[in-house]
Input
Amino acid sequence: MTNEQKIIATKLGLLKLAEQLGNVSEACKVMGYSRNSFYRFKDLYDQHGEAGLHMTRVVG
Output
């Protein structure tokens, strides 16, 4: 698995954890991401699927 694939898998994990917990804030806290990053990932994932997560950079 490449480094980029690991990063994408982590972002997918964040989206799935938020869904499982039903709490975006808690998922972000556990995974070490900001809510802003979560919503950017979610928007890109909703629009482009997994390929959309290749377009992201983490900010905060």
Observations:
- The mean pLDDT is 91.
- The chain is about 70% helix and 0% strand.
- The helical segments are 3-21, 24-31, 35-48.
